[in-house]
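User: My collaborator sent over this chain with a note saying "see what the structure looks like." That's all I know about it. Can you take a look?
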Amino acid sequence: MKNKKNKYDLEHSQFKYEPDDRICAFYVTERIQDILTIKEGAKAHKELYEFYEEMVRNIGIDAIHKHNN
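Assistant: Without extra context I'll predict from the sequence alone. Here is the result:
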């Protein structure tokens, strides 16, 4: 089967990935607010840690891209 080009295919896209070091304060605030409403300590800790990992992963992806280019 031949590789078909589609609008979601980044390899064939006309758009170039540009790292963005900015974060959306509204998104961060909403996520923290959601975590603060969790009453169960262990679950709140888990959610906070997952949010932390998300932020680190996003920072890391941009850093790796910058390093490679």
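A starting point for your reply to your collaborator: The chain has two helices and no strands.
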